Amino acid sequence: MNIIDKKTPKMKAIIWTKYGGPEGLQLQSIDKPIPKENEILIKIHATTVSAGDCEMRSLKLAMWMRPLIRLIIGVRKPKRIKILGQELAGEIEAVGKDVIQFKEGDLVMATNGFNFGGYAEYICIPDNRENAVIVKKPANMTFEEAAAIPLGGFNALHFIKQGKIQEGSKVLIIGAGGSIGTVGIQLAKYYGGEVTAIDSTEKLAMLKSIGADHVIDYTHENFTNLGKTYDVIFDIVGKNSFSKCIKSLAETGIYLFANPTLFRTIRAKRLSKKTRKRAIGGTVDYTSKDLVYLKDLVEAGKLKTVIDRTYALEDIIEAHKYVESGQKKGNVVIKIRK
């Protein structure tokens, strides 16, 4: 009997070996994935390091979430998820026989949500099912720029739409200098808002460059002491007093909080019973409809991504350290292919 030795194709990937510091991320050679009948094999050109990636890796999450994450992913070390990275852009190399929306050679941007997998040369993603979302890459964006659209875009769009912003609405965005805030500013301006953006000193020039009408340096000023009110307050970081944020709302204003806690959620429900003000939190759905909407805005010249730094895949540890430093302006991108 002749046995033909067919070597399994390999790829480079960053393997998440343990909970804790970024040193637990290791560059390894592993088997290249093979797409199932409903899956798309994407040759990844770029991905990002998000705050969510860092929080998952380190388990710097709410206390009640930590044991739950360990039960789902692995008690002592990560087992079910080995590769982090939630968003990406690349080229479709192959498709399963049940895939009808895409074909080999299509240039795409995508998110695999909390199934992760972006820190690798290849990934298999279901065809817009099971919380995975794939759309064609904007024609006027590089892979690096497109990779940074999904997460910040989904979160910003979800909340900004609920703010019911109209021409002349006064909008305050707290924590505006990250991936969500930079998209939030542009969306609020697109809908006609007058935007005040809050972040640290070194981010203020960037915030103005993408459309913020006014900026506040939180290291020198507390917006709650300025005596101004806003139609919409979009609080991305959740570090300000709930009651003081509500006091800074106009009579029928809307407070949007992107990091819902049990305390804020309870107070949000009580608020509408006592006043005409509203507070809205909740989770964000990832849909192809929303990603196509964001793509159309990009191609119309109404939306762009802000990229602070770009790292090679092998420099993932340094990228994680930088994101955790809190200095990130917009997005940190991992360029996988030259």
TrEMBL record:
Pfam family, one: ADH_zinc_N_2
Top class in the EC scheme: oxidoreductase
Domain of life where this protein originates: Archaea
Entry EC number(s): 1.1.1.1
Keyword Iron: no
SUPFAM superfamilies xref list: GroES-like, NAD(P)-binding Rossmann-fold domains
Domain annotation Enoyl reductase (ER): ranges: 20-334
Keywords for the protein's UniProt record, in alphabetical order: Oxidoreductase
An example molecular function term from Gene Ontology annotations: alcohol dehydrogenase (NAD+) activity
Protein name: NAD-dependent alcohol dehydrogenase
Organism: Candidatus Lokiarchaeum ossiferum
